[in-house]
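Researcher: Batch entry, complex prediction.
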Amino acid sequence: MFRLFVTIASLAVTAPARADLPVAITYLRLEVDRPPVLSNLDPVPEDLGIAGAEIALADTRTTGSFLGHDYSLTVVSLPPDGDFAAAARAALQTSRLILLDADPAAILSVADLPEAASALLFNVSSGAESLRSADCRANLLHTIPEDAARTDALMQVLQRKQWQTTVLVTGPKPADRAFAEALRRSAAKFGIAIAAEKEWTFDTDLRDSTMDEVPRFTQDFPDHDVILVADETDDFGRYIEHNGWLPRPVAGSDGLVPTAWSHVIESWGAVQLQNRFEAHARRNMRGPDYAAWAAIRAIGEAVTRTSSNDPATLRAWLLAPDFQMDGFKGRGLSFRAWNGQLRQPIAVVNARALVTLAPVEGFLHQRNEMDTLGLDQPESACTAFTESP
Amino acid sequence: MTRTPPRRTAPPLPRVGRGWGRGAAPLAATLALVLATPARTDEIWVTNEKDDTISVIDTATLEVTRTIPTGERPRGITFSKDFSRVYICASDSDTVQVMDPATGEILHDLPSGEDPEQFVLHPDDRHLWIANEDDAVTTVVDVESRKVVAQINVGIEPEGMGVSRDGSIVVTTSETTNMAHWIDTATHQIIANTLVDSRPRHAEFTETELWVSSEIGGTVTVFDIATKAEKAKIRFALPGVNQDLIQPVGFEFTPDLTTAFVALGPSNHVAVVNMQTYEVETYILVGRRVWHLAFNRDHSQLFTTNGVSGDVTVIDVASRTALKSIKVGRFPWGAAFRPTE
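Model: Structure tokens for the complex:
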């Protein structure tokens, strides 16, 4: 029951004496053409993700100043038709630690470069399941949660509330369909019924007619506790809530939303991070900002503890079973050793408050309760992590 | 998958001194201990972070006798040596308030730097060493001249503050940088930075040792003051409680330095640690998300602030059992003892 470890001598780091250890990090982004959405109330910030990397760099540089570790960040942003792999090849000349903000195909094009074999890459943008399963790469870690982790968190909340019957409205875009698939998978995993599904096919601007159109659209659904919405580009989801035929809450891409980060998170010291971020970026911190923040904090933790800037050394430290990083979400963050995914709580929030941080109390796991969220080891087809030395 | 959740909290216990003959027999032994304490009007002062108040608990009756308004988001609290003044970190008011404990009147504010979270009063009774959480700075304030004497750059989110018994060293721990910064109090220079486990929260000195708790790391690290080297690492394990919910925050030593009581945050327990062997002897169930602790006059009772349940648990030190839960304000954070005679 009681454990005790006594170490005789350990790290007593006095003032920095030796030459600075350079730690060069690159943030590499492939911009996306964003389709028009019905409302422009919440534009996607230009510096989404990048601002999170910048705030983490500032924090990490402070730590580095006490240890003689000199961190730098270079941001490279390519237009949607840019040659991502070529840009990555250029970046790898000077930086062996790269954050990738791009679609799964572009991320893999970098991970598979011969020059990247000995680098350490972080996926900070894609929730695609394939990257954590059959398409995983040994040099690629993920700090953004997979879609399945977010939908699992939502289903835990619905199950805990005994809202067990849902209906699903899915948008026409690929991202909507992928998220709908994740919702279906998680619903089955946690015993939530999806009693009916409909495609969102409106091609008119219905902002002025939602009170007429949406009730009729939802009228023929069987009775349900919750309407699930798969609308990952933030197009129509906001018009469903309070407009359904039945008075039911909305969840998924709108309403009750599972996310890696939200400005409504206040506990666990999060206010300090929110304050630093808002002072720096003049906006609220979002999930992709958090993913980039976490990647640089993870690099910083590993450099601090190993006094090395060698990607292989850092990777080994990050994947070690006793690695723990604070992420302002009340539990120590760590990486799943079988597919490189950052193990983290998922916030389930509405527009104004945190509902809960999943894993929800009572959902147990033999290894770590956070492994109830997302692909667990037996479900992942990833082998790159077990094969490589 | 939906077994009974492991987290539990201490049930409200019968009021001490009442309920005789109402099935209180199992508590008789501990009640006798409590009642043996002379009826003084000593107090425990508790800051309520989300209510902007202090709850004053009478240590004899174990009731809240006063609720005193403070500045915004009160956290750290400490008394002057003669207990004539109480210093309060009003974090969101960006000030340290100086209060007359007899009247509850704010006498004046001290310049504290931004967002003071926690502080320690130097043995000279004159200098407050303050952790400015949002500013990565430790501020030294002269409480008499009411002037800032020095500001020292430290790591991100400084919080834990400890001063050595001889007053020569102050340690600031930084939550995001994960270090204990050792500061020479004469020169105001950092003389060493020692890494600790993730999210250090609290620091306390003995004559020869520095103890630092790490909330996310789940450990207490013990340093030798002379060499500044790590001497021991204390880990905790509670049956049925996930390891990552065991989060050490505040701790207190008994005056004979034989026993440390360590608050373990959302695991809702206080660990009792043998200070010679560094072994955990037992765990005491208290309220939800336990933060900080304070002893009464003769150290027979220990009061814990429980942030989430909004109450204070009274622990009987001899029997190592919880005696009572006392409802206070929202998110109780700091606790300090005040004798009134």
